[in-house]
Amino acid sequence: MNIVLVGLGLIGGSVAKALKQNTSHRVLGMDVNEDVLLDACSSGAIDGKASLADVESADLVYLSVYPEDILAFVRQYGKRLKPGCILTDACGIKREICHAVEALSRDEKGAWCAPYQFVAGHPMAGKEQSGFAASDPSIFSGASYILVPGSASQEAVETVASLALQMGFGRVVQVSAEEHDRNIAYTSQVPHALACAYVLSPRCRQHQGFSAGSYRDVSRVANINDVLWSRLFLDNKQCLVDELDELLRNLQKIRDAVDREEEGELRRLLQAAAQIKREVG
Amino acid sequence: MNIVLVGLGLIGGSVAKALKQNTSHRVLGMDVNEDVLLDACSSGAIDGKASLADVESADLVYLSVYPEDILAFVRQYGKRLKPGCILTDACGIKREICHAVEALSRDEKGAWCAPYQFVAGHPMAGKEQSGFAASDPSIFSGASYILVPGSASQEAVETVASLALQMGFGRVVQVSAEEHDRNIAYTSQVPHALACAYVLSPRCRQHQGFSAGSYRDVSRVANINDVLWSRLFLDNKQCLVDELDELLRNLQKIRDAVDREEEGELRRLLQAAAQIKREVG
């Protein structure tokens, strides 16, 4: 396949390297930053810079850019893509993106009028650094790759799924955009909000010498990309607020049990948590 | 030195193994569980079971048992220890323990009347399993060892400090019991309360396939020993409640900024957090 990667940051760069390492597809790249494109070319992460003609003849276009730039790309290049081209993304929220891409791909009667098929995706991998320099295909190893098929053909979905497995992901999970966003609010967005809230305590500046694994783990992702994550939080507002409220309630229960010295209630809460963790891992 | 370890759980067992690996001290053990003592003897983690005579002739007694059992030991054996014996502990809270041991060690006029010197300690190491079977001296590698000298002599403090470094700890920090408890509420107790509150969400049961490092890190210590941690939480009540309130406030701010779609405020909060994390690590 001729693959065009749009955006060569942490995820796009890692995808590029994984594809070059593990497949024989032709991999071309686009990035707003020319230095990144140069680095990607000279390190062999991509076969070259994608021209407009390359975009138009691509078999698969992989978008790993900010949510609004996904839509900007679809508006600008969508109609010029080759018939049957598979368009996929790596955005961390799916309802907003899927609805917006659908809206750009259907005519006023609701019929699909775009040349491409859209298979929304979310590689469940990352790390606390960002940018091409941090990209590393080993972050994909054994991780989960989520696909939201929408109205794409089974064939297109399977093409993206097998590409994910070739990149080193351990499994592919297909879900609805709604289910994705609810789960991701819990598994990814809450921990990021939490890490930030945690380090905002004035005590944080005295942690050296008093911290071990627990501090390190909770605070790990606090060095956050505020532009990207504000967008992701707001684009998943209701799911995230619901999960944060759930966490605030449970944390308040533990706090109140301590404050009221209710040892029985406190033990019950900790026991229930330990039981869940043992069961679900 | 003749060292007696009281309690051969995760920490006591790891201390035993570290002392046998890295020093030539004679290491004897006591544990309420005879099977654990047998395992510790047969695996070479200790040189043998400590008799009452061994306790009475020990140069150093290391208590890694539950807070109330530390006091029970001091009540039962304190007066029988050899003059100059160093008594030290590994309990995760220090004000309660230090005050209680001091109270047991002074006469009605407030003069020290115990044969031992008490050097309170807290090895900042652990893992999510507990018990002798999980003990492993490598958890100490490079970690911080906190000492609360109280009224112990500088010589006694230095003996414990150098033992900690021989066990593989990376540094020894001396602080007051108050400073210890405030910092530990933040660096250790809040993350444990948080892990429990986090997995209590009904969404937790659906995390498989949607989780990566963030979920794993925040939930890691949720499989908690509820008896031990309820005790530690209650024994450090005010410090912990203060820090939980701080976290609840900051988390609420992030939640409200998302709920009100205040992108500027949300970015400001995330930016502030990222800045702190970059500065303090």
Outline the structure in words:
The structure is a homodimer of 281-residue chains. The first copy, chain A, is built from 11 helices and 8 strands. By secondary structure, the first copy, chain A, is of the alpha/beta class. In chain A, α4 (67-77) runs parallel beside α5 (95-105) and α7 crosses α10. Chain A is globular. The mean pLDDT of chain A is 96. Chains A, B: GO terms for molecular function: NAD+ binding; prephenate dehydrogenase (NAD+) activity; prephenate dehydrogenase (NADP+) activity. Chains A, B: InterPro entries: 6-PGluconate_DH-like_C_sf, NAD(P)-bd_dom_sf, PDH_C, PDH_N, Preph/Arog_dehydrog, Prephen_DH. Chains A, B: This is Prephenate dehydrogenase.
- N- to C-terminal separation of chain A? 38 Å
Count helical runs of chain A: 11
As laid out across the biggest beta sheet of chain A, the strand order is: 3-2-1-4-5-6-7-8
> Largest sheet of chain A, if any?
8 strands, mixed
Outline type of chain A: globular
Number of β-strand runs of chain A = 8
Oligomeric category:
homodimer
Overall residue-averaged pLDDT value of chain A: 96
Structural class of chain A: alpha/beta
Order of helices and strands of chain A, N to C? EHEHEHEHEHEEHEHHHHH
Which stretches of chain A are low in confidence, meaning pLDDT under 50 for 5 or more residues running? none
Calculate Rg of chain A over CA atoms: 21 Å
Pfam family, one (chains A, B): PDH_C
Keywords (chains A, B): Coiled coil, Oxidoreductase
Pathway (chains A, B): Amino-acid biosynthesis
Protein name (chains A, B): Prephenate dehydrogenase
